[in-house]
Structure prediction request, 157 residues.
Amino acid sequence: MKRIVFVAAAVGLVVVATAAYGHTLQSYGTTFTDSDLCVFGSAHIQHGSAVIDSGADVRSVGNWHTLGCSGEKALDPYWIALRRQLYRWDSNAWVVCNDSGWVYNTTRTAQVWHQRTFQSAICGARYYGTMGTGFVYQNVGGWSGGSVWSDYHWLPA
Prediction:
């Protein structure tokens, strides 16, 4: 049985202004937890000085009896999966503008991330947001995880 928890819109919205990027919207949170595992995810959209960046990550963390979710839990190759999707607002619905497809860990690790930088708003001047969807495989229970939404941001052409 799959155990999936989808995290809607803003789990933990952080707005940051830096010199390299004018505006960054990032959300992160726990998308799954049980007695042995916690799955964390994040998604961001940022722009500034003619560059647009869309990224996401998923991380496997142990769930310890006295400590809770802490300490990375490295997993075998292809046991962590991530998909980063850049969405654009098109009058009345969110439409996928760019999709990473499923990306997997190829070495023993606890984290997978994917980031893509564009030199312009690839789908025109619109509102954009990133959806990061990540899953971790467990021998008992199968794939566990969910999605995190970056929130949306106006990006000029």
Observations:
- Confidence is low (pLDDT under 50) at residues 1-21.
- DSSP finds no helices and eleven strands in the chain.
